[in-house]
Design a protein that fits this description.
Elements (H helix, E strand, L loop, with lengths): L1 H11 L3 H21 L10 E5 L3 E2 L3 H16 L3 E2 L11 H13 L2 E14 L2 E11 L8 E5 L5 E5 L3 H17 L3 H5 L11
Length: about 200
């Protein structure tokens, strides 16, 4: 009965404005659901790369788990070379040298198509890439991001427990992969130590 009365008012023009607002809100809701889905699409990385002895082929579930772990580690960063220049005082050349050493060794790289704003304990940063160094035996030892301009940002004072968990997660993953050399962390390169 109420629906019939509502239709009669709409047809008579009395509630035309209200119905238009409902239609706009309904369309806006549908568009936001299609664009943003469950809210994770903007957080989904375009690429997850793990380099151990060599680049490792990952299943989607492993990519998702490593992305989550790297993001959780980044969130605990208390200092970075952009926002805390009074605390972290390395030159750009020093940062670039450490970054180059990290990406030339075992590391995890998370890359996004578009920069996203990431909240860390040290502040909000634009992030296009997250890079975690995995060369140490006991924990993930270095953390960098690449910002929206392509600049390397070094991070410091982040959760050591998450560093240990991330390295252990990668080691467990490597043990499940078919290549026994990569799983054991051995390489044919004598200059690169195994884990």
């Amino acid at each position: 009965m109420a629906a019939v009365a509502s239709q009669a008012r709409f047809r008579s023009g009395k509630d035309k404005g209200r119905m238009s607002r409902y239609a706009v809100l309904l369309c806006a809701g549908l568009v936001s659901t299609c664009v943003f889905g469950d809210g994770t699409s903007s957080d989904t990385p375009a690429r997850v790369e793990l380099t151990w002895a060599e680049p490792v082929s990952l299943e989607r579930e492993h990519e998702s788990a490593l992305h989550e772990s790297a993001s959780a580690l980044l969130a605990t960063s208390q200092f970075n070379s952009v926002q805390h220049t009074n605390i972290l005082t390395p030159s750009n050349a020093q940062i670039q040298k450490r970054y180059s050493a990290t990406v030339s060794g075992r590391h995890l790289l998370i890359a996004y198509d578009e920069p996203k704003q990431v909240e860390t304990m040290g502040g909000v940063l634009p992030v296009r890439k997250i890079v975690v160094g995995l060369d140490r035996e006991d924990y993930a030892a270095s953390l960098f991001t690449i910002d929206d301009r392509g600049a390397v940002v070094e991070h410091a004072k982040y959760d050591g427990g998450k560093c240990i968990e991330l390295l252990e997660e990668v080691r467990r993953l490597m043990e499940t992969l078919p290549s026994s050399g990569a799983a054991a962390g051995t390489t044919d390169d004598p200059s690169r130590p195994g884990p």
